[in-house]
Give the backbone structure.
Amino acid sequence: DLPDLRGLDVCVALKRSQTGHTLPVVLNGQPHGPNKGTATCQLHMRFYKDGDIIVIEPYRASAFPVLKDLAVDRSAFDRIIQAGGYISVSTGAPQDGNAIPIEKDQAAKSFDAAACIGCGACVAACPNASAMLFVSAKVSHLALLPQGKVEAQRRAQAMVRQMDEEGFGMCSNVTACEVECPKEISVTNIARLNREYLSASLGSEV
């Protein structure tokens, strides 16, 4: 016999991201599940065998408070972006697409960094709950382009400062973030973020 559930909230709460509709969940201890380079929304049941037990949990990080069930508040990422994840452009008519020359290798590296969807798997995977991979991806994809040079002297400092204020931990080079990232963002971006931060601290390019 089933208990009388009338009047009870029996729905499991979820909170999807506006980018890629990524669910901030841990499947059997792994953010986004066992498949490398795959987000939760891309993980199909055919990847599991009959009888497999799937344990679904929300992300565990103080900067990502659980709202309810599997609904996690990741607005900390939004505030980090607001702190410096933008560029300055002149108002008026748009420039021609080829007006600013960009070296091909730099453009490719910027594109790779810009693939970050801000899902937070890097934070969930890190034993320190660090957001360095996320912040470094957002800093790198602008720092590598000439359009991002206007704010270069303040961007890294402002975003790292906001990251610290949000309560994320420090990076200790475990690199679990890269392993679990569904977009396979490289930790080389963290090295670039460190260079940008040092450059801003010294007031000159490094």
